[in-house]
Amino acid sequence: MVSGRSLDVLRVIVQDYVASREPVGSKSIVERHSFGVSAATIRNDMALLEEEELIAAPHTSSGRVPTDKGYRMFVDHLSEIRPLSTAQRQAIDAFLGASLDLDDVLARTVRLLSQLTHQVALVQYPLLSKSRVRHVELVPLSATRVMSVFITDTGRVEQRILDVAGELDETVLGDIRARLNSVLGGLGLAEATDVLAAFPEQFAPAREALVRAITLSLVEQIGANRQDKLVMAGTANLVRTEEDFSGSIFPVLEAIEEQVTLLRLFGEMAADQNGVSASIGRENAEFGLGEISVVTSGYGASDGSIARLGVLGPLRMDYSNNIAAVRAVARYLTRLLGDDPSA
Amino acid sequence: MVSGRSLDVLRVIVQDYVASREPVGSKSIVERHSFGVSAATIRNDMALLEEEELIAAPHTSSGRVPTDKGYRMFVDHLSEIRPLSTAQRQAIDAFLGASLDLDDVLARTVRLLSQLTHQVALVQYPLLSKSRVRHVELVPLSATRVMSVFITDTGRVEQRILDVAGELDETVLGDIRARLNSVLGGLGLAEATDVLAAFPEQFAPAREALVRAITLSLVEQIGANRQDKLVMAGTANLVRTEEDFSGSIFPVLEAIEEQVTLLRLFGEMAADQNGVSASIGRENAEFGLGEISVVTSGYGASDGSIARLGVLGPLRMDYSNNIAAVRAVARYLTRLLGDDPSA
DNA sequence: AATTGGCAGTCAATAGTCACGAGTGCTAAG
DNA sequence: CTTAGCACTCGTGACTATTGACTGCCAATT
Fold first, then answer.
1. Predicted confidence (pLDDT) per residue in A106-118, tens digit
2. What are the tens digits of pLDDT across the range A187-209?
3. Where does the pLDDT of residue B125 fall: very low under 50, low under 70, confident under 90, or very high at 90 and above?
4. Which of A120, A131, A133, A139 to mutate to test the interface with B (most CBs of B within 10 A)?
5. How far apart are CA A119 and CA A122, in angstroms?
6. What is the pTM of this model?
7. What is the mean pLDDT of chain A?
8. How far is CA A212 from CA A50, A184, B237, in A?
């Protein structure tokens, strides 16, 4: 079994490799760190680590590089999570301090996270299945178009344009709007869907088609409210670290833009709700992302964590710093969103 | 002066170079095209073109490559704009057919444009300076937080969260909301700003602070409504064409994410309102983007074109196809947004 | 005057050779 | 368990030779 000093050797191999991006050899280890033993001893330890598949040699006679398993061991047992520097804390305050709307907060958050970690940052929109209807608004756009706006008490706004067959009458629309609001106000989303199904019946047949179109749109909007959405920033950072990828980063960038793959990945990582968790290298192979690592944390809720944020980057990333940053930003965002009224 | 056949030579140089990404020599020209003259004659023409700085040789003994000026000449005089293929037209219909809310339409548009051109696609949000206030909604989020939602009759929705000092009372908030709507409804944005400035005075001193905070937020939201915003897609395509850039594409990607540079660039190109216009290579030097080309078109308005969309890519891009795609998508989007009721 | 064929010259790209150095594995001794 | 020493492996960088794709120019031709 690998023990004591061997694990220390693994730690410095990960650290040095992340810093220098070059395979690290026994000699450079004894030079840069004070192990109090000779290079030959380190070599013996490295042989052990290689047997356990924690490190590997790219070529017969070169230094060693951590394997996926090695990174995993490092993340789980060897990295102490450095607290953020004061400069970083100040950046968080400065960036997120002036809170605006939800879109804006998340956009700022994702940019902040990308700057703190120098990686691609991802923030998932909160799911609002528990929210309630606050207000419905109908806005006539043209003779045959209406925009319906759907507002929840948790602050999410959905808008949608729909075409209607007949001609529009402003006062009719006002009537529908008033009735919708009196019926729906305060309902949960599931109840609202039920109520909407029966809603058109109370209208005269002449108007029923119009009302039905509107309720249909609203039901869709409620559905969209449950749907996941992702914002990201810092894709340029992926280009910066391009050398860390064996092939092209093209498929990775495509997956990021596609979103659906990442949302599945996020979903899978949702297991440990609140803490930070990492998914490393081949652990993402099923998503076609075997050459990247993802560090995420849940955020946003005392009533069950509902969304995640995190960073994505090459295997060879600074896990200590990134884990610390993800954790700090997640906590800050949770506080900011006000689910925790202690703020 | 360069004449007749020389310009034909320039055209095939641009076309072949774009297709093959390799400098094109006199011999390969006579092979691939039927000019009915010998390679030596082509060489003479090429000498002329080089004198006019329309083409250049990367090194002493290699084929020729179009210069910025050469591309410009090609775009202005030599490229016939191919109509889109039926497959491409179908893609437009399929992609944009099911119209939802504005956010969704623009998100689909930008993805579509990126797929049609295999470049980075950009769509600017329409400016709504001419729109009118439709509705204002105030949503209490917690004991000290309120979300204000601002809806215009053109369908844009702005939301913002604000902290208030004192405690919140639901009925007070309802009162403020009702009064705001009766005062603001139907006003233009500029008038609304004026009205809001005097609005808090009608309240009792005890509530004035709260009201003032709300009106301040609303004024900011109106301002944001005038602010530009950009959505993009297809950054992966930039990586795919990375070889076309002399240095790294990192600064280009950064500029894209930063948005502000591109918005300035868009602003500058707004000159010719409705047609497609291109900005090629060094023409973008003042924005630090001397190695890219941008093809844009205005869209959206019979009452003065208010926003632009387009693509961005390497100098060596398929201008004919991209110009056609940008134009088609811009027209389609204009129709879809309903400013032109003939749709 | 425009076109053509031919020839010399230039330069990038490719492949081959060689020496160097970093790093390992192994063995025998402390 | 640790150490020193030695032979061996490879990747790297420098250098050279060769090849091939061009151009530019000139003299001949239409």
1. 888 999 999 999 9
2. 888 788 888 888 888 888 878 88
3. confident
4. A139
5. 10
6. 0.80
7. 84
8. 67, 15, 43
Q: Provide, as residue numbers in chain B, all residues whose Cβ is less than 8 Å from the Cβ of A341.
A: 142-143
Q: Which two tokens stand for residue A75?
A: 């993340």
**CA B277 from centre of chain:** 12
Return the structure tokens found at B154.
């053109």
Chains A and B form CB pairs within 8 A to the count of: 109
Tokens at A240, concatenated: 């910066």
Q: Which residue of chain A comes nearest to B186, CA vs CA?
A: A139
Return the biggest CA–CA distance within chain A.
92
CA A72 from chain center: how many Å? 20
SS (H, E, C) chain B: CCCHHHHHHHHHHHHHHHHHCCCECHHHHHHHCCCCCCHHHHHHHHHHHHHCCCEECCCCCCCEEECHHHHHHHHHHHCCCCCCCHHHHHHHHHHHCCCCCHHHHHHHHHHHHHHHHCCEEEEECCCCCCCEEEEEEEEEEECCEEEEEEEECCCCEEEEEEECCCCCCHHHHHHHHHHHHHHHCCCEHHHHHHHHHHHHHHCCHHHHHHHHHHHHHHHHHHHHHHCCCEEEECHHHHHHCHHHCCCCCHHHHHHHHHCHHHHHHHHHHCCCCCCEEEEEHHHHHHHCCCCEEEEEEEECCCCCCCEEEEEEEECCCCHHHHHHHHHHHHHHHHHHCCCCCCC
Could you say which of B155, B240, B254 has the minimum Cβ distance to residue A147? B155
State pLDDT tens for residues A265-307. Answer: 988 887 665 688 999 999 999 999 999 999 999 887 554 457 8
Tokens of B246: 């002399």
Q: What's the rounded Cα separation, in Å, for the pair B23 and B33?
A: 16
For an interface test with B, which of A130, A151, A245, A339 has the most B Cβ atoms less than 10 Å from its Cβ?
A: A151
> What are the pLDDT digits (tens) for A149-162?
887 766 677 777 77
Handedness of CA B81, B86, B88, B94 (dihedral sign): positive
CA distance B66 to B39: 18
Contact, A49 vs A2, CB < 8 A?
A: yes
Q: pLDDT tens-digit profile of B62-98? A: 889 999 999 999 999 888 778 888 888 888 887 766 5
pLDDT (average), residues B7-23: 92
* More confident call, B190 vs A283: A283
Give chain B's contact residues with A (Cβ, < 8 Å). 99-105, 134-135, 137, 139-143, 145, 147, 149, 151, 153-155, 157-163, 233-236, 239-240, 248-250, 253-254, 257, 338, 341
Return the pLDDT at A318. Answer: 95
Please state the φ and ψ torsions of residue A296, each to the nearest 5 degrees.
Answer: -135, 165
User: Is the distance from CB of A96 to CB of A333 less than 8 angstroms?
Assistant: yes
